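Just curious. Protein, please.
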Amino acid sequence: MNETLIIIRTKNEDRWIKHTIEKVRQQTYKDYKIVIVDNLSTDRTIEIVKKYKLPVIKIKQFFPGKAINLAYSKFKSKYVVCLSAHCIPENNNWLKNLIKNFKNKKTVAVYGKQLPIYNTSDANYRDLKIVFGNDRKIQKKDYFFHNANSAIRRSILNKYPFDDKATNIEDRIWAKKIVDQNKYQIVYDPTASVYHHHGLHQNNNKKRLNGVVNIMKNIEFDNLVPEELMIKNQNICACVIGRLTENKISNTYIKTNKTLLEELKRDKRIKKVYLIIDKELIKKLGFKTNKKFVYIKRSKEIERSEIKDILKFLYKTLLRKNIDYMGYFNLDYINRPKNYLDKLLDTISEDFHSVVTFAEKINNLWLEEKNTLTNKTTQLEQNLSQTSYYTSLYGIGSMFFYNSLKQLNFNKSNTFLIKINSSKYSLRFSQSYD
């Protein structure tokens, strides 16, 4: 029997789960077992969990307290730790700092600090900083308790399980029941800290909120980037696709694409480069590969496919690889912006975009609806439309969060366009060449 059972509840957490598990595995306190309670995840969460050979309990209808009760009832332990899948322990003593509080027999539950990270919204930043302070607290009447980062005595849970039917704040419902006994205490220990992207409250006045957060940020300096999410610790790979054609390759084509391959070769942030390219074409470019480059045989299914088919092919082919981001470059594009690779990598390090790509503004766009043409933009008149339209130039350079390739479900909330306003970047060798 392990002294501590760590329950991680998941629902489409492939953005976070690997980092959370890895940080738990690095803890100085080792007497624990992890169990996953998953609510019908449709992304890569379960695929990632399977790599760690962790037990998974699947539930169809999610009630937060019921999920905890179900998990701890199946495994014996002295203590039960609840950790949200998107809570990354700040350091390797997180678990030790939670459990040490049980040396006091009156302590039946402990919850730790929750830190915002670099792209946490202003509302969430404010809430986390206000609620989770730097002073340790012993609560005998105060029933605030947050189980996203918490530990509880198993013997107490046996007597007072969580409410099976509560849809939210099951932790505070439980804590109220505990403190009402007038014989137990709950401890808040800020040394047991985790990074938590989400906050506690929503729906705030944005202008006022920005002012509050700016003041708070000026009062104290925070390191808001978990080490696991730093760009240097992300496994970033790239795919380059290209093929020989009947056309004689131009000097521009050779210069642009040899430069691309050389930059991918030099950049230490790119761990592997997968080539879906004829080897003969590489020779014509005058480029020498090394161990960083891996050829992938072009399958029939992507012989003349769209980018979505290529990305799905990559996802299936490299599924067993430990990849966080996948770059995509097509040799058919014969012009690339200055510092394009740095722009892609800087952007994914600033936020959790599923796709970052270059895009060109369209200056003359017509829309046909029910056999009627409507001019949405024009080069002849100004301010015809306040809306700007862009076309994605994926092949110039794009960076995809690898797990997102499973479903290719991209929308405005997780896509970032690096805007370029020169038509030369849309030129393709297959359409125009020297």
Summary: The chain has two domains: 4-229, 231-426. The mean pLDDT is 87. The two ends are 72 Å apart (CA to CA). The longest helix spans residues 251-266.
